[in-house]
Amino acid sequence: MSLALFQIDPRDDVATTLRDVRAGESALGVTVASDVPKGHKVAIRAVESGAPVHKFGFPIGHARQAIAPGEHVHTHNVRTALESSGSYSYRPAFETPGPRAAAPTFLGYRRADGRVGTRNEIWILPTVGCVGRTAEKIAARAAARFAGRVDGVHAFAHPFGCSQLGDDLEGTRAILAALANHPNAGGVLLVGLGCESNQMAGLLPGITQPNLRTIGAQAAGDEVEEGLALVEALVAQAEQAVRAPAPIADLVLGVKCGGSDGFSGLTANPLVGRMSDAVTAAGGTAILTEIPEIFGAEQLLMARAETLEVFDSIVAMVNGFKGYFTRHGEPVSENPSPGNIAGGITTLEEKSLGAVQKAGHATVTDVLPYGARVGRRGLTLLEAPGNDAVSSTALAAAGATVILFTTGRGTPLGFPVPTVKIASNSDLAARKPGWIDFDAGQVLASGMEAAAEALLGRIAEIASGLETAAERNGEREIAIWKRGVTL
């Protein structure tokens, strides 16, 4: 690739390196002063000490010292400007989505309540960590015994459900109940122990899944054999479902980034934003989470709040999350991660401005607490931390039937619903074909419109049954947010 630097917005003070750049190379009217790795930033105009540094057309921090054109711009000369709390005003500024590819249909499983699943699986959910391995044993034997009759049998073990109190226990209960109600679950087996805090009697009122069975391990004779018999009954009912054409409006997209790099905000995240726009414009739903990773870019989303009530809910969620950090004595800017920094991301503001692009231009129609399920079409903000496993589990529990997961560094993780790994750069896609489902690096080669059309087609194929890399690799797990006291 001969092009060395890419300026995202004409207001920017920096440009991103599209390859490793050597000292003395010239591009965009500047001569690079030192070797700069791919995905990092080079100043294309002078910035005074203490002045804001702009990328994506917005400040990503303040200069620690004067920065000359051609200098490498990173943690050594830029600092965050984030504060521990914010005061916001509602100034609506709704955006118009750009060109959209033709919306395809997909083949899904329409449930009795009208929702459409992208898989027809049996999910085994332990109420408590003590029977996590029991659930996994049942799932492994059932998957072999009933292969081909449903799309799969999966257990989702976790370490919680006992010795928890108050809101912490309620969070565990809410996530498990929401997963049990998911349209990708054609049937659910709840496996309890018997003496746990998360009693079956407290969990069941939140579950409306019509194809449900339960077992208590302490009361059972042979809990694995009895569990297998219950799964057989679930399979017999679930296998009656068949795939049928459904519009893209029936998809619920969860959008997530993990292991971001300097290309994430150039390629993968804007590309996923096109997917959010396509689905929401058609009448569907997209869910954005990772609330700490919108710090510094939250006002872009607040300006797209459908109503003052939605705006107030965003403000409360953002300030509440900042309070969560400060109560634990942590700065709100304790991000990006070491991998992010190595990939070229300097401050949380920069990471956030790139991350919110996954939401596209859609209007924010709802704000949900952790463990809640989507109820409105459009763009929903969901309370959850940035941690990949916790936030992706929350997306699935909220009702996402496909998760679009962008990454510049790579990860093998997969979650209860099809998790589409989208590489921000072609090098990663080439090095890790066993992890990656789509190469967003093609945005730089063939353009955004061609890449958007290709990704939308791939999503339709995956929603219709094509396995993701994580599914082929058997990568399925959940993680529950632990916030409270353990007895």
From TrEMBL:
A GO biological process this protein is involved in? D-galacturonate catabolic process
Which keywords does this chain's UniProt record carry? Hydrolase, Lyase
Q: Which Pfam families match?
A: GD_AH_C (PF20629), GD_AH_second (PF04295), SAF (PF08666)
Does the record's keyword annotation contain Hydrolase?
yes
The UniProt record lists the keyword Lyase: yes
What family does the Swiss-Prot or TrEMBL record give for this protein? Belongs to the UxaA family.
Q: Which PANTHER family does the protein's record reference?
A: ALTRONATE DEHYDRATASE, ALTRONATE/GALACTARATE DEHYDRATASE
User: What's this protein's name?
Assistant: Altronate hydrolase
Origin organism of this chain?
A: Sphingomonas pokkalii
